[in-house]
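Sample 3 of the quickstart, ligand coenzyme A:
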Amino acid sequence: MRAVYPGSFDPVTNGHVDIIERAARVFDEVIVAVAPNRGKEPLFCIQERMEMLSEVCAHLKNVSVDSFEGLLVSYAERRQAGVIVRGLRAVSDFPYEFEMALMNRRLNPSIETVFLMTGAENAYLSSSVVKEVTALGGSIDGLAPDLVVERLRLKLQEEVRESEP
Ligand code: COA
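Result:
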C-alpha cells in the first residue's frame, strides 16, 4: 500500500521525522508531500523544504519526497496512494484533523486517512515553535534534525540582514 504524508513542513521537525519513520514501517511506500498552505506565510520555499526532507529521509529506502498544489485527494489519486497519513498531537489537533479527514473522504471515499499518535516528547512541538525559539536566540537542539537547525539559523540571519536599513 502506498501512503501520502502531506504537510507544510516549514521546516521539518523531529515530530515529523518520527511520523515518517513509523509510517515507513507500516506502509510499503510513503510519499512525503510538501504543500503550500494558504493560511500560512512560509519561511522556506517549497524547494528548500523538499531538500531538507530529502536529506532527513535519505536513510529510508521506501520514502520519497514530492510537492503538490491543489487538492490533496487529487494528488493522492494521481500517485495511486490509498492512504493519507497524518500525525495527531494534543487534543487540540482533533477538530481540524477531523474536518479535513471528513472532507477528504467526501471528496474521495476510496482514500482512507490514517492517524499516527505523535511521540509524547513531540506532543507540543510544531514548526512555528521551532522557528520562534530560533528567532529569539533559544536552542532547538533535539527538536529538529541538525541540518534543519543549521539552515534555520542561517535563514533567520539572512532575514535580519535583509530587514536592516
Ligand atoms: N510533530 C510535530 N509537529 C507536527 C506534527 C508532528 N507529528 N504534526 C503536525 N505538526 C505541526 C506542524 O509543524 C505544523 O506546525 P505549524 O502550524 O507551526 O507550522 C502544524 O502541526 C500543522 O502542520 P502540517 O501537519 O504541516 O499541516 P498543515 O496544516 O500545514 O497542512 C495540508 C495541511 C497541507 C495537509 C492541507 O492544508 C491540505 O491538504 N492542503 C491541500 C489542499 C486541500 O486538499 N484542501 C482540502 C483539505 S480538506
